[in-house]
Fold:
Amino acid sequence: MMGRASKREEIAQAAFRQFHAQGFNATGISDIVKAAGVPKGSFYNHFSSKEESALEALNRYGASLRFEMLTASDSHPLDRLRAHFEFLSKDMVENGFVRGCLVGNFGAEVADHNEEIRAAVKRGFDRWTARIRQVLAEAQEAGDLDDDLDIEATALFILSAWEGALIAARADKSASAVDAFFRTVFGVLLRRK
Structure:
């Protein structure tokens, strides 16, 4: 007799989709198991809590951000950075200006109430900022950005501006904030020398 197949993947994917669509507080374990098509007990066979499944969702979201676009050496650093944010903005537009960034959403919704999720959000933003900083350093080395540009502060600013643009786009249900992000970041702040 064969043992039952693990439902962890279905539950983890359903949790990711539910958290991204509804947020942490509006998503219950019953929503997750219903979306996964499994009984409630199956959830607890794989996750000890809603918070643990949220941490898994954050990991899955991070893997979906296509950070490899930032490190590909087949194009110019600033072109790679722009392509990364264009990829992310396409998802926002195609989904009708809903969902936003799961890391940012959790940061705004849960970070004050759960230390483990707050720490995971911080790690996610730190890794993302470091990747942006690396691209800016490459652009500086290529002579496309002024040597006096503080790439540490600029990387943090770009990510913060992106997260703010996503919130504004969701509130306005339009791409105007995202368009302003691209015009300002790539047309002014990172304009090639």
Observations:
- The chain has ten helices and no strands.
- The radius of gyration is 19 Å.
- The mean pLDDT is 91.
